[in-house]
Each structure stands twice: as structure tokens, then as C-alpha cells.
Design brief:
By secondary structure, the chain is mostly beta strands. It contains 2 helices and 14 strands; from the N terminus they run βββββββαβββββββα.
Length: 237
């Protein structure tokens, strides 16, 4: 998982640098994420990995500046909590980004459990938001989307769509254009697709798959298992 970001929709703000991070991250709905309490301030967690998190402070709160040390308690679902320490990397419109100190972050088991919980909640309550499980890739194992005369690495995918980085050759597709082609996933999995470009920028594009061309959930979960086996080492809490 990468550094911390709310993927309620595929984000065209995502950069190639973001996708090089080979760590799992779980994203939370802004209205119901875990909470983080430090001395003098409180925040809602927007996303979290074993290396860091991104949080949103209340409107009347002022957080620490970049470079400041941070220590506090993260409270997850079902009464679980973790004491963490870290340093503020930056503060911007997408939230306050905090990097954990080594061995003073969130246990990986917490991150994986929260990921599963979020997936089950979206499946159980589709009327209350996105009903699809979205999975993000470390850049080095990104699948490749091949369409016509160009190819592009896949940054994240769900049953209903993909977000791809800028094509490695050729020009980026235009917003509203229709696409057909194949997606080459890991371990030899290949899938034909058709869809429409929802939005496009210099950094990449969001592709909505047609109803008869979505990704099977079993495929998305198989990709998750593959990345887990490559980048997640068993830990003992």
C-alpha cells in the first residue's frame, strides 16, 4: 500500500512515485474512519499502512507543522487500538501525512484486518456508498492495460473500473472516449475489457468498465493475494 489516500473514486492526482511504494494501505470513508488522538488535538484517519497514515483534523483544530514529532493513540473498529509515534511529512488539502518511526507504527495485522472489514462493509451496504473492493498495486507489479497502439500500467482496480498511469508509449486517451483491449494481470491472468474514460490528466486516467466487462471479484482478490505473498512478511504482534 502506498502512502495514504481516499480512493472512493480513482484519483487522477496519483503519481508514479506514489505507486512505487510496496506496502499495503487501507482507505477509510471520511465519515467513519478510525480516530487518532494526540496531545492537544484529534483527527479522523483517512488511510493507513504499517509505515504511515493520512489524517484529517477537525475544522477548528490546528495540527503540528511539517517536521514535528507526533505521538498518540489510533482507535480502530471493534475496540482495537495502537499507540504510534512518528513525524509529520506534510500538511495540505489532502490531509496531514505522518510517517511512523521504525517499530512504532501500526501492526501489519491491524492493517490487513481493517482492509477486510472495509471490504465486507461495502459489500453489505452497497446503498451507502461504493460497493466495490478497490485494490492498489506497488508499481513494480502493476498489471498492464493494452489498447490499440499503446499500453499503460494499472495503479488500482475494482470490479467496476481501473485507474491507470500515463501510457508508457503513445498519447493518453481523451475523456469520454471508448476503449477496448486486454489487461495482463499477474501470474498469467489475462482479461478482455471494454469501457469509457471518465476523466484523464497528464498523470493518468480513470476507466469505467462496461457492465458486461467488469473484473470478477475473484480476480481482484487473487491479485491481492499475489501482492501479499510478494511484499508482506509474516509478523508476530
Amino acid at each position: 500500500m502506498n502512502e495514504v489516500g481516499d480512493r472512493q473514486e480513482p484519483s487522477d492526482e496519483r503519481t508514479a512515485e506514489d505507486n512505487r511504494r510496496a506496502y499495503f494501505r487501507v482507505d477509510f470513508p471520511a465519515s467513519s474512519g478510525p480516530t487518532f488522538r494526540a496531545e492537544g488535538w484529534r483527527a479522523v484517519v483517512l488511510d493507513c499502512s504499517s509505515l504511515g497514515m493520512r489524517v484529517r483534523l477537525d475544522d477548528d483544530e490546528s495540527g503540528p507543522p511539517p517536521g514535528a514529532p507526533v505521538a498518540g493513540r489510533l482507535r480502530f473498529a471493534e475496540g482495537r487500538s495502537a499507540d504510534v509515534q512518528g513525524t509529520v511529512l506534510r500538511d495540505g488539502p489532502r490531509g496531514l501525512v505522518i510517517a511512523f518511526h521504525e517499530r512504532q507504527g501500526v501492526p501489519l495485522s491491524f492493517v490487513l484486518d481493517e482492509e477486510r472489514l472495509q471490504m465486507m462493509r461495502r459489500k453489505a451496504r452497497p446503498a451507502q456508498g461504493r460497493s466495490y473492493f478497490r485494490f492498489s498495486y506497488p508499481r513494480k507489479v502493476s498489471p498492464m492495460l493494452h489498447a490499440q497502439l499503446w499500453s499503460a500500467p494499472v495503479a488500482n482496480c475494482s470490479e467496476s473500473g481501473l485507474y491507470c498511469l500515463a501510457p508508457v508509449s503513445g498519447e493518453s486517451p481523451e475523456e469520454g472516449s471508448e476503449l477496448r483491449g486486454i489487461i495482463a494481470f499477474n501470474e498469467g491472468r489475462v482479461l478482455r475489457f471494454s469501457g469509457r474514460i471518465l476523466r484523464a490528466s497528464r498523470g493518468g486516467f480513470a476507466l469505467e468498465l462496461h457492465a458486461d466487462s467488469g473484473l470478477p471479484l475473484s480476480l481482484v482478490l487473487a491479485e491481492e493475494r499475489f501482492v501479499t505473498s510478494k511484499f508482506i512478511k509474516p509478523v508476530q504482534d
